Amino acid sequence: MDDDTKQEMEELVSAECGVNTFMCFMAGQDRMMRDPELIETMDTVSKIGGLAMVHAENGDIVKEAERKMMMAGISGPEGHAMAHPEEAEVEAVMRACVLANQVGCPLFISSLSSSMASEIVKKRKEKGCIVAGEVTAAGLACDGSNYWNKSWSHAAAFVCSPPLREGEMDNLVDATADGSIDIVSSHHAAYTTQQKSLGLSNFLTIPAGITGLEERLMVLWQKAVQPGKMSRSQFVAATSATAAKLLNIYPQKGRIAVGSDADIVIWDPAARRTITKDEHISKCDFNIFEGMEVTGGPEYVIFRGKMVKDQDVFRPMTGYGQYQPLPPFAPYMYHKIQQKKEKDKIEPVARSEQDMATTNGIENIPPPTPEDDVCPNNQHRSSVDLNSHPQTPDFDEVSNSPSRSSVRVRAPPGGSTSGAFW
């Protein structure tokens, strides 16, 4: 993070460019950021009114685990899952929250994949940390056990970072429903089986990416709204409104109101569908949600006032989209930052001369008592004077004594003896 980079970041948040989010990677071969870099980056982001988005994994743990997998001869997709342990994510999530909180920077944790990580986000929010958490549709509906599938192409299709975890789907749904996780995204990065096969002999070179753009709303509705864990209003917040607030484009986006953009989804809660690669629009030849039955889906989609989906008919309009600039200092986050700064304002304690007075007065403090020099004991000298001992016989008396030089002991400690005891 040099002065040129800081200058570029300031230019990016200007009205001309309209960029207010900055991605920080705590893991990765060539992009891992150390704590000093993270602190400096977060400090710059907070000053220019941006949002620090963090991929939270301990890069050193991941790197060492990857080395161990390769040394053990594990080159398949399961190696990717084992090289990205849950502890690496949990530690990084906590560290990112601590650093951002100390700097006063709004934080966005990307792609939470475990209940332990989401619990940290929840607890840090309760402690006053300005942080938002995100989960992918895949995290809500796909299990990490797929990495151990016998079919290499099947297992490789689920490779993403952080990886999907075994047994965490329901936990992440619950965390989304109770507000621990703020938004549900797709992180759509589709690759064909041929593209994934670049890592056929080494999981480190498997392109990391999964589908989810088309399925995101249906998956969340099926997993959270349909069973009654989440209300319809919460569904709208998790998929649209909160994201618009984080990016500082609310109420232009994320709300149906006079003056807002006419981007509207008409939802049919009774629509039934089975997700399959044969029906999705993506050119990807594999769908990680294959065979999932969902209830609820979009019936009509209106984009800028134009109908782009009419029931089962999709009418894309090439070139109809517009670039959406993102203004800095989103009130949704920076209002909380300002409140926290006022609450935690640093001020010295005002003390009068009377408060500064000591009990005895400085002038009456006696000088310290000098201590005697302590010399180490001489191990060659004894404190016992044998010559002055009243019961000590004279040396000549001992040497002229008729007593024998050895004594036979009939029952010495430990048993009898047949010889002399010296």
What do these coordinates show?
This protein is of the alpha/beta class and 422 residues long. Helix content is 34%, strand content 12%. The chain contains 15 helices and 9 strands.
Short description:
The protein is α/β, with parallel strands linked by helices. The protein contains 15 helices and 9 strands.
Keyphrases for this structure?
single chain, 422 residues, alpha/beta, four-stranded antiparallel beta sheet, 9 strands, globular
β-strand number = 9
What characteristic shape results from the CA principal axes?
A: globular
- Kindly estimate the percentage of residues that lie in beta strands according to DSSP: 5-15%
Number of helices: 15
Low-confidence stretches: none
Topology:
Layout: H1 3-12, E1 21-25, H2 35-48, E2 51-55, H3 59-71, H4 77-83, H5 86-103, E3 107-110, H6 115-126, E4 131-136, H7 137-141, H8 152-156, H9 169-177, E5 183-185, H10 193-196, H11 216-225, H12 232-246, E6 264-274, E7 293-303, E8 306-310, E9 313-314, H13 331-343, H14 353-356, H15 395-399
Helix pairs in contact: 2-5, 3-4, 5-6
